[in-house]
Structures are given as C-alpha cells and as structure tokens.
Amino acid sequence: MLPLQPRTIATHALISVAFNAVLAACITLAGFHGFWDNMVYSQLIGFSIFIMVDGGRFLLSRSGYPGKFPMMLLVLASVLAGYFGGSAVGDMVLGNAPLHGMERAPQTMVGFLLMSLAAGGFGAYYFTSREQLARARLAHEEAQRHVAEAQLKLLQTQLEPHMLFNTLANLRALIDTNPAQATHMLDRMVAYLRATLGASRASLHPLEAEFERLRDYLELMAVRMGPRLRFTLDLPSDLRQTPVPPLLLQPIVENAIKHGLEPKREGGTIHVRAERQGNALNLDVVDNGMGASALAAVTVATASPQAGGFGLQQVRERLLALYGPAATMGLSRAEGGGTRVFITIPLSGQAA
After folding, report:
1. In the structure, what pLDDT confidence band is assigned to residue 109 with cuts at 50, 70 and 90?
2. Which secondary-structure segment (H or E) carries 314?
3. With contact defined as beta carbons under 8 Å apart, do 116 and 79 qualify?
4. Same-domain pairing of 219 and 98
5. What are the C-alpha distances in Å from 258 to residues 190, 234, 266?
C-alpha cells in the first residue's frame, strides 16, 4: 500500500484551494456577485467537499480506492453535504440569511450544485488515479528488484558449485605435493566465500568489493592454471565506492577463462578495467584467448538472449531489470585476438 504522506495531503489541499480560486474567478466573470463573495463560497464549499472525499475514501479503504460504486456514493454524499454545509458557513461569514441563495435564485443554485458534483467527481478521479499509478509504479519497481535478486541467486547456484568443486579437487592434490600452495589457495577460497556471503545479502555493493571478489577468484584460478593465467585489475580510486550489482563481473571473467584461456595451450591474460565516461560507468573485461564472434554494442533490452551463453545472459537480464534500456552490454573481438565484453551503466539514477 502507498502510504498517505503529509506532503501528499498538503499537495492535494493546495490543488483544491487553487481550483476553488479559479472557479470563483470564473463565476465572477460570468456576472454572479462580487469576487470576494464568490471566493468565500467557493473555498468553503470546495474545501469541504475535498476533505470529505479525500478523507472518506481512505476511511473506507486503506488503499484509498474503496471501489467504483462506494466511490460514487462517497462523492455524491460529500458534494451534497459539502455544498449545503459550506454554503451555510459562507452565509454566516458574509452575514447573509441561511441558504438565501436557494430562495432568491433556486435554478442558479441547482446549477452550482451540479457544477460542484462535476468538480468533486473530477477531483476524486484525478487524485485516485494519480495514487493508483504511483502504487502500480512502486509495485513494478519492487517486482524488478525481486527479479534481479532471483537472477542473482540462480546465477550463484550455477557458478559457485562448479568453481568450488574444482577448487576442492585442486586442494586435495596440493595438500600432499605442495602444502604452502594449498594453504595459499585455502586462504583465497575463505576470502572469496566471505565476500560471496556478504554480496548475496545486498542488491548493490561498492565497485571496490566487486574487484576484491574478482581478485580472490582469479587468484584461485591462477593456482589451478599456474603461469597459464595472468591478470590485471584496473580500478581508479574515484570509482571505488560506486554502487554496482554484486556478481556482475565474475560470470564474464569465468566465461573468459572457460571459453577463451583454458582451451588455449599457452593460456593468456585477462584485463579488467573501470572508467568514468561522462555520467556513465564503463566496465571492460578483455582477454587474449581463443576469441569470439563479433557482436556490436546494444542495449540490454535488445540483445539476443543467446549471446554469450548462460552467464552473460543472466548478467544482461539483471542489468535490464535494474537499469532498463539505460544500460548497455556488448561482446566483440579484442584487438590482437581474444574477446572483449563491455558494460555501461548510468552513474546518475542508480538502481534502487
């Protein structure tokens, strides 16, 4: 439910006061009485109707919309009560006889009553529609967050068991042959798992944490591949605290190792870098492995779902859920061979 905030109530009241003032001016221009009299009646009648309609709909339903027919009855009752109650108070303020207008010009007063009914119905429709749209927008954003979180969980269940089983198998072999290297590998695995546990509880984390997690992962892979794997991580100091989705780059790096460097006899190098370009954050993962077919830069909303396999598909779908078409992801051949995967996300208007 969208809570009715004091700011929202104040906004509704100001809109009502402004509308009543415009209505008083129009009535005056039409030749009915003086502007001051019209303003007093218009504000008292209009504000009375506003209070009863806007307050009554929230008394009838926590969502502010009790349904079509209850809303119609509420508007009708509020307009009748507000019109006659506001008119009576206006008569007292201006020193007129109670409901003297009904005696002097009943047809005109009936016309004003019908006009009040139309204005009350329009106001109720306007405010209710705005709140329903706001609730729908919040529900959509919440659903997008849930989608992104579910995709993160799915990605973790796909990536981590494979990596952990390989790491444990390597640890078992190293314990007897190279205890020091086994200890180093175990330390990296502990650091990696600690970072993974923390990242799984947040929708965003600092880019620095993402790079630290990458370093732990690549150190683990370096123990397994030995000198066949070399890597560099380039993160400018001014981008360290930039919030990004967790597990954003690891699927890309793992994809580069699995499909680019491991099949290559001599292995190769992975270079991960971040840079600011205007109001956007650019992230590049470049390897000099086996290479991939070129895919031009596209928005995540229009990229082929099959492009890059499961890991890249999940990254693309998470970016789409969090940033919409403002995010870009692409896959292309790197200069001198290998593959480049690049991501661009907005620095302003971060994901919620």
Report:
1. low
2. helix 309-323
3. yes
4. no
5. 22, 22, 14
Do 112 and 202 lie in a common domain? no
Q: Are the CB atoms for 251 and 311 separated by under 8 Å?
A: yes
| Rounded distance between C-alpha atoms, residue 75 and residue 49, angstroms | 8
Domain encompassing residue 338: 178-346
Q: How many residues does the chain have?
A: 352
CATH of the domain at 247: 3.30.565.10
Lowest mean pLDDT among 236-240, 259-263, 290-294: 290-294
Residue 248 is assigned to a structural domain of this protein: yes
* pLDDT (tens digit per residue) in 135-186: 667 666 666 666 655 555 554 544 455 566 666 767 777 777 778 877 877 7
How far apart (Å, rounded) are the C-alpha atoms in residues 56 and 240? 51
CB count within 10 Å of CB 22 equals 11
Bridge partners of 230, per DSSP, are 269
> Nearest CA to 267 among 246, 283, 290, 284?
290
pLDDT tens-digit profile of 175-227? 777 788 778 777 777 777 666 665 555 678 899 989 988 988 898 888 778 88
Tell me, yes or no, whether 328 and 240 share the same domain: yes
The count of domains in the chain is 2
Residue 77 backbone dihedrals phi, psi, to 5 degrees? -65, -40
Note whether 317 and 218 are same-domain residues. yes
The C-alpha atoms of residue 45 and residue 78 are separated, in whole angstroms, by 10
**Residues 257 and 314 sit within 8 Å (Cβ to Cβ):** no
Q: Would the pLDDT of 309 be above 60? A: no
Measure the CA–CA gap between 91 and 109, rounded to whole angstroms. Answer: 14
Other Cβ atoms less than 10 A from the Cβ of 205: the count is 20
